[in-house]
From TrEMBL:
Its cofactor is Mg(2+). Belongs to the HAD-like hydrolase superfamily. MasA/MtnC family. It is an enzyme of class 3 (hydrolase). Binds 1 Mg(2+) ion per subunit. It catalyses: 5-methylsulfanyl-2,3-dioxopentyl phosphate + H2O = 1,2-dihydroxy-5-(methylsulfanyl)pent-1-en-3-one + phosphate. Monomer. Its EC number is 3.1.3.77. Pathway: Amino-acid biosynthesis; L-methionine biosynthesis via salvage pathway; L-methionine from S-methyl-5-thio-alpha-D-ribose 1-phosphate: step 4/6; Amino-acid biosynthesis; L-methionine biosynthesis via salvage pathway; L-methionine from S-methyl-5-thio-alpha-D-ribose 1-phosphate: step 3/6. PANTHER family: ENOLASE-PHOSPHATASE E1. GO terms for molecular function: 2,3-diketo-5-methylthiopentyl-1-phosphate enolase activity; 2-hydroxy-3-keto-5-methylthiopentenyl-1-phosphate phosphatase activity; acireductone synthase activity; magnesium ion binding. This is Enolase-phosphatase E1.
Length: 250
Protein backbone atom coordinates (compact mmCIF):
# COMPACT_ATOMS: atom_id res chain seq x y z
CA UNK A 1 0.00 0.00 0.00
CA UNK A 2 1.25 3.51 -0.84
CA UNK A 3 1.85 5.76 2.17
CA UNK A 4 0.79 9.31 1.37
CA UNK A 5 2.84 12.23 2.68
CA UNK A 6 -0.19 14.53 2.92
CA UNK A 7 -3.52 14.48 4.78
CA UNK A 8 -5.65 16.50 2.35
CA UNK A 9 -5.60 17.21 -1.38
CA UNK A 10 -6.49 20.57 -2.90
CA UNK A 11 -7.06 20.66 -6.65
CA UNK A 12 -7.28 23.34 -9.31
CA UNK A 13 -9.74 22.61 -12.14
CA UNK A 14 -8.78 24.11 -15.51
CA UNK A 15 -5.63 22.41 -16.80
CA UNK A 16 -5.45 20.10 -13.77
CA UNK A 17 -8.58 18.00 -13.25
CA UNK A 18 -10.16 19.12 -16.51
CA UNK A 19 -8.80 19.75 -20.02
CA UNK A 20 -8.36 23.40 -20.94
CA UNK A 21 -10.22 22.55 -24.15
CA UNK A 22 -13.40 21.78 -22.19
CA UNK A 23 -13.19 25.19 -20.51
CA UNK A 24 -12.19 27.24 -23.58
CA UNK A 25 -14.02 25.36 -26.34
CA UNK A 26 -17.20 24.38 -24.47
CA UNK A 27 -17.86 26.29 -21.22
CA UNK A 28 -16.72 29.77 -22.20
CA UNK A 29 -18.44 29.76 -25.63
CA UNK A 30 -21.63 28.49 -23.96
CA UNK A 31 -21.55 31.38 -21.46
CA UNK A 32 -20.91 33.89 -24.25
CA UNK A 33 -23.68 32.52 -26.47
CA UNK A 34 -26.26 32.49 -23.67
CA UNK A 35 -25.29 35.61 -21.70
CA UNK A 36 -27.72 37.99 -23.38
CA UNK A 37 -30.75 35.69 -23.11
CA UNK A 38 -29.81 34.83 -19.52
CA UNK A 39 -29.59 38.48 -18.49
CA UNK A 40 -32.94 39.15 -20.11
CA UNK A 41 -34.75 36.29 -18.37
CA UNK A 42 -32.99 36.45 -14.99
CA UNK A 43 -32.34 40.19 -14.63
CA UNK A 44 -34.70 40.70 -11.69
CA UNK A 45 -33.32 37.83 -9.62
CA UNK A 46 -31.60 39.23 -6.50
CA UNK A 47 -28.59 36.93 -6.86
CA UNK A 48 -28.13 38.13 -10.45
CA UNK A 49 -28.33 41.74 -9.29
CA UNK A 50 -25.66 40.86 -6.69
CA UNK A 51 -23.41 39.73 -9.55
CA UNK A 52 -24.17 42.92 -11.51
CA UNK A 53 -23.15 44.94 -8.45
CA UNK A 54 -19.86 42.98 -8.31
CA UNK A 55 -19.30 43.62 -12.04
CA UNK A 56 -20.05 47.33 -11.57
CA UNK A 57 -17.56 47.67 -8.69
CA UNK A 58 -14.95 45.67 -10.59
CA UNK A 59 -15.41 47.86 -13.69
CA UNK A 60 -14.78 50.98 -11.60
CA UNK A 61 -11.66 49.47 -10.04
CA UNK A 62 -10.45 48.36 -13.47
CA UNK A 63 -10.96 51.82 -14.97
CA UNK A 64 -9.11 53.43 -12.08
CA UNK A 65 -6.28 50.91 -12.39
CA UNK A 66 -4.83 48.88 -15.22
CA UNK A 67 -7.84 48.96 -17.59
CA UNK A 68 -8.89 52.54 -18.36
CA UNK A 69 -11.11 51.27 -21.21
CA UNK A 70 -13.13 48.84 -19.04
CA UNK A 71 -16.81 49.11 -20.07
CA UNK A 72 -18.75 50.66 -17.20
CA UNK A 73 -22.16 49.75 -15.80
CA UNK A 74 -24.12 52.81 -14.64
CA UNK A 75 -25.81 52.83 -11.21
CA UNK A 76 -29.14 53.80 -12.68
CA UNK A 77 -31.03 53.60 -15.95
CA UNK A 78 -33.71 51.56 -17.64
CA UNK A 79 -33.28 47.79 -17.54
CA UNK A 80 -32.39 47.52 -21.25
CA UNK A 81 -29.60 50.08 -20.99
CA UNK A 82 -28.19 48.48 -17.83
CA UNK A 83 -28.37 45.01 -19.39
CA UNK A 84 -26.54 46.16 -22.52
CA UNK A 85 -23.85 47.79 -20.37
CA UNK A 86 -23.51 44.63 -18.28
CA UNK A 87 -23.29 42.52 -21.44
CA UNK A 88 -20.56 44.74 -22.89
CA UNK A 89 -18.60 44.40 -19.65
CA UNK A 90 -19.07 40.62 -19.57
CA UNK A 91 -17.93 40.24 -23.19
CA UNK A 92 -14.92 42.46 -22.53
CA UNK A 93 -13.96 40.45 -19.43
CA UNK A 94 -14.40 37.15 -21.26
CA UNK A 95 -12.24 38.40 -24.15
CA UNK A 96 -9.50 39.13 -21.62
CA UNK A 97 -10.09 35.81 -19.77
CA UNK A 98 -10.52 37.69 -16.51
CA UNK A 99 -11.01 35.54 -13.39
CA UNK A 100 -13.03 38.09 -11.42
CA UNK A 101 -15.52 36.94 -8.81
CA UNK A 102 -18.48 38.70 -10.48
CA UNK A 103 -17.82 37.24 -13.93
CA UNK A 104 -17.24 33.74 -12.53
CA UNK A 105 -20.40 33.88 -10.44
CA UNK A 106 -22.48 34.92 -13.44
CA UNK A 107 -20.90 32.32 -15.74
CA UNK A 108 -21.83 29.64 -13.19
CA UNK A 109 -25.47 30.72 -13.28
CA UNK A 110 -25.49 30.64 -17.09
CA UNK A 111 -23.95 27.14 -17.19
CA UNK A 112 -26.59 25.80 -14.78
CA UNK A 113 -29.24 25.58 -17.51
CA UNK A 114 -26.80 23.90 -19.91
CA UNK A 115 -25.95 21.17 -17.40
CA UNK A 116 -29.62 20.71 -16.50
CA UNK A 117 -30.58 20.35 -20.17
CA UNK A 118 -27.78 17.84 -20.81
CA UNK A 119 -26.13 20.24 -23.31
CA UNK A 120 -23.08 20.45 -21.04
CA UNK A 121 -21.28 17.40 -19.69
CA UNK A 122 -18.01 18.06 -17.90
CA UNK A 123 -14.76 16.46 -18.87
CA UNK A 124 -12.56 15.19 -16.01
CA UNK A 125 -9.33 13.31 -16.69
CA UNK A 126 -9.74 9.55 -16.02
CA UNK A 127 -6.69 9.56 -13.71
CA UNK A 128 -8.40 12.24 -11.59
CA UNK A 129 -11.49 10.10 -11.20
CA UNK A 130 -9.28 7.21 -10.06
CA UNK A 131 -7.40 9.44 -7.62
CA UNK A 132 -10.62 10.87 -6.17
CA UNK A 133 -11.89 7.35 -5.59
CA UNK A 134 -8.63 6.19 -4.02
CA UNK A 135 -8.40 9.21 -1.72
CA UNK A 136 -12.03 8.79 -0.74
CA UNK A 137 -11.45 5.11 0.10
CA UNK A 138 -8.39 6.14 2.13
CA UNK A 139 -10.56 8.74 3.97
CA UNK A 140 -8.27 11.49 2.72
CA UNK A 141 -10.41 14.58 2.02
CA UNK A 142 -10.15 16.22 -1.39
CA UNK A 143 -11.03 19.87 -1.92
CA UNK A 144 -11.32 22.01 -5.02
CA UNK A 145 -9.88 25.52 -5.33
CA UNK A 146 -10.73 27.20 -8.61
CA UNK A 147 -11.38 30.65 -10.01
CA UNK A 148 -14.69 29.20 -11.15
CA UNK A 149 -17.39 29.91 -8.55
CA UNK A 150 -18.24 27.25 -5.97
CA UNK A 151 -21.65 26.88 -7.63
CA UNK A 152 -19.95 26.33 -11.01
CA UNK A 153 -17.54 23.81 -9.46
CA UNK A 154 -20.43 21.81 -8.00
CA UNK A 155 -22.19 21.83 -11.39
CA UNK A 156 -19.03 20.65 -13.12
CA UNK A 157 -18.28 17.77 -10.75
CA UNK A 158 -21.97 16.93 -10.53
CA UNK A 159 -22.28 16.42 -14.31
CA UNK A 160 -19.16 14.64 -15.55
CA UNK A 161 -18.70 11.95 -18.17
CA UNK A 162 -18.19 9.63 -15.16
CA UNK A 163 -21.39 10.79 -13.50
CA UNK A 164 -21.74 12.73 -10.25
CA UNK A 165 -18.32 12.96 -8.54
CA UNK A 166 -19.49 15.23 -5.72
CA UNK A 167 -19.70 12.40 -3.17
CA UNK A 168 -15.93 12.03 -3.59
CA UNK A 169 -15.25 15.68 -2.70
CA UNK A 170 -15.05 17.19 0.77
CA UNK A 171 -15.46 20.87 -0.12
CA UNK A 172 -14.96 23.72 -2.55
CA UNK A 173 -13.15 27.07 -2.52
CA UNK A 174 -13.22 29.96 -4.99
CA UNK A 175 -11.92 33.52 -5.14
CA UNK A 176 -14.32 34.65 -2.42
CA UNK A 177 -11.73 33.02 -0.12
CA UNK A 178 -8.98 35.03 -1.81
CA UNK A 179 -6.97 35.26 -5.05
CA UNK A 180 -5.27 32.07 -6.15
CA UNK A 181 -1.87 33.74 -6.57
CA UNK A 182 -1.75 34.97 -2.95
CA UNK A 183 -0.24 32.82 -0.18
CA UNK A 184 -2.75 33.96 2.45
CA UNK A 185 -5.57 32.28 0.49
CA UNK A 186 -3.88 28.90 1.00
CA UNK A 187 -3.37 29.57 4.73
CA UNK A 188 -7.05 30.47 5.01
CA UNK A 189 -8.08 27.28 3.21
CA UNK A 190 -5.85 25.18 5.49
CA UNK A 191 -7.39 26.88 8.54
CA UNK A 192 -10.89 26.25 7.22
CA UNK A 193 -10.30 22.55 6.56
CA UNK A 194 -8.38 22.11 9.81
CA UNK A 195 -5.23 20.65 8.27
CA UNK A 196 -1.77 22.30 8.58
CA UNK A 197 -0.56 23.71 5.25
CA UNK A 198 2.41 21.31 5.32
CA UNK A 199 -0.02 18.38 5.20
CA UNK A 200 -1.91 19.66 2.16
CA UNK A 201 -1.01 18.72 -1.41
CA UNK A 202 -2.01 21.38 -3.94
CA UNK A 203 -2.09 20.43 -7.62
CA UNK A 204 -2.36 23.15 -10.26
CA UNK A 205 -1.28 23.97 -13.80
CA UNK A 206 -0.39 27.53 -12.83
CA UNK A 207 3.13 28.28 -11.60
CA UNK A 208 2.10 31.45 -9.75
CA UNK A 209 -0.53 29.50 -7.84
CA UNK A 210 2.02 26.81 -6.98
CA UNK A 211 4.46 29.47 -5.76
CA UNK A 212 1.77 31.02 -3.53
CA UNK A 213 0.75 27.63 -2.13
CA UNK A 214 4.36 26.71 -1.41
CA UNK A 215 4.93 30.09 0.27
CA UNK A 216 2.03 29.18 2.55
CA UNK A 217 3.77 25.88 3.31
CA UNK A 218 1.77 23.47 1.12
CA UNK A 219 3.25 20.65 -0.91
CA UNK A 220 2.83 21.28 -4.63
CA UNK A 221 2.62 19.48 -7.94
CA UNK A 222 2.29 21.20 -11.28
CA UNK A 223 0.01 19.38 -13.72
CA UNK A 224 1.39 19.14 -17.23
CA UNK A 225 -1.64 18.42 -19.40
CA UNK A 226 -2.11 18.65 -23.17
CA UNK A 227 -2.88 22.24 -24.18
CA UNK A 228 -1.68 23.82 -20.93
CA UNK A 229 0.31 27.03 -21.27
CA UNK A 230 4.08 26.43 -21.33
CA UNK A 231 5.85 27.28 -18.07
CA UNK A 232 9.13 29.05 -17.39
CA UNK A 233 11.80 27.13 -15.51
CA UNK A 234 10.80 26.23 -11.95
CA UNK A 235 11.65 23.78 -9.18
CA UNK A 236 8.21 22.35 -8.37
CA UNK A 237 7.52 18.66 -8.86
CA UNK A 238 5.33 17.95 -11.87
CA UNK A 239 2.91 15.26 -12.97
CA UNK A 240 1.35 14.29 -16.27
CA UNK A 241 -1.16 12.00 -14.56
CA UNK A 242 -2.49 11.77 -10.99
CA UNK A 243 -1.42 8.11 -11.12
CA UNK A 244 2.08 9.37 -10.29
CA UNK A 245 0.81 10.41 -6.85
CA UNK A 246 0.26 6.77 -5.98
CA UNK A 247 3.52 5.34 -7.25
CA UNK A 248 5.71 3.85 -4.48
CA UNK A 249 8.22 6.70 -4.94
CA UNK A 250 5.61 9.33 -4.09
C1 LIG B 1 -16.14 25.37 -12.72
S1 LIG B 1 -14.70 26.13 -13.14
C2 LIG B 1 -14.87 26.58 -14.79
C3 LIG B 1 -13.64 27.07 -15.34
C4 LIG B 1 -13.37 28.51 -15.00
O1 LIG B 1 -14.24 29.33 -15.14
C5 LIG B 1 -12.08 28.89 -14.53
O2 LIG B 1 -11.81 30.07 -14.43
C6 LIG B 1 -11.10 27.86 -14.13
O3 LIG B 1 -10.04 28.40 -13.42
P1 LIG B 1 -9.04 27.49 -12.56
O4 LIG B 1 -8.73 28.33 -11.38
O5 LIG B 1 -9.72 26.20 -12.21
O6 LIG B 1 -7.83 27.26 -13.42
MG1 LIG C 1 -5.89 26.06 -13.65
Amino acid sequence: MTTLSYRAALLDIEGTTTPVTFVYDVLFPYARAHAEAFLKSAWERPEVQDDIALLRDQARQDAAGDFPDAPQIPDRGDADTLRQAALANIHWQMDADRKTTGLKSLQGKIWKDGYAAGTLTASVYPDVFTALRRWHEAKLPTYIYSSGSVAAQKLLFGHTEEGDLRPLLAGYFDTTTGPKKVAQSYRDIADEIGVPTADVLFVTDNLHEAIAAREAGMQTRIALRPGNAPLPEHDHLTLTSFDALFSPAD
